[in-house]
């Protein structure tokens, strides 16, 4: 049953292998945060604009939610150990969720926040993977 659900997405396997676990965590967190901002923009009747005071709690809530989504993806679906993945995915989610919230506010692109989150998540995740490979081992 699960194999039938996963089969349409097998074309992503070479890309996911290339960007690494950090990149995947970044894409998950960024896409989730951006999608939530886009949905908030669609549900809000006027043009969405978060104040500076509102951006911090929104970023923190999105960080927590994106971290839980990433943990579910890695632990339940990819069978990673929770102890091995919890702290790195939290740090990636923290970085990746703050950037799209602030970038979409500066650019005024709340309707395209999902795309901003995806790109930011991919770039930050790949940068952290490269940093880890270079300095961390």
Task: Note the main attributes of this structure.
mainly alpha
Topology record:
Blueprint (H helix, E strand, L loop, with lengths): L1 H5 L6 H31 L8 H26 L4 H26 L5 H24 L1
Brief write-up:
With 137 residues, the chain is mostly helical. It has five helices and no strands. The protein has helices at residues 2-6, 13-43, 52-77, 82-107, 113-136.
Task: Write a structural description.
The chain has 137 residues and is an all-alpha fold. Helices cover 82% and strands 0% of the residues. It contains five helices and no strands. The protein has helices at 2-6, 13-43, 52-77, 82-107, 113-136. The longest helix has 31 residues, at 13-43. It is globular, with a radius of gyration of 15 Å.
Structural class: mainly alpha
Specify the biggest β-sheet.
none
Average pLDDT over all residues: 87
Low-confidence parts, pLDDT < 50 over ≥5 residues? none
Q: Percent of residues in beta strands?
A: under 5%
* Apparent shape: globular
Looking at how many chains there are and whether they match, the oligomeric state comes to single chain
Element pattern in H and E? HHHHH
Strand element count: 0
Please report the distance between the alpha carbons of the first and last residues.
38 Å
Radius of gyration: 15 Å
Helix content: over 70%
Number of helical segments? Answer: 5
């Amino acid at each position: 049953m699960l194999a039938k659900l996963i089969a349409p997405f097998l074309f992503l396997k070479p890309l996911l292998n290339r960007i690494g676990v950090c990149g995947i965590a970044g894409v998950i967190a960024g896409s989730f945060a951006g999608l939530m901002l886009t949905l908030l923009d669609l549900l809000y009747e006027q043009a969405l604009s978060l104040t500076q005071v509102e951006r911090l709690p929104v970023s923190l809530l999105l960080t927590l939610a994106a971290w839980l989504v990433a943990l579910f993806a890695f632990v339940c679906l990819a069978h990673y150990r929770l102890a091995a993945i919890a702290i790195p995915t939290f740090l990636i989610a923290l970085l990746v969720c703050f950037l799209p919230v602030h970038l979409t506010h500066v650019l005024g692109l709340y309707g395209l926040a999902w795309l901003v989150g995806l790109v930011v998540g991919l770039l930050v995740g790949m940068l952290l993977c490269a940093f880890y490979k270079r300095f961390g081992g």
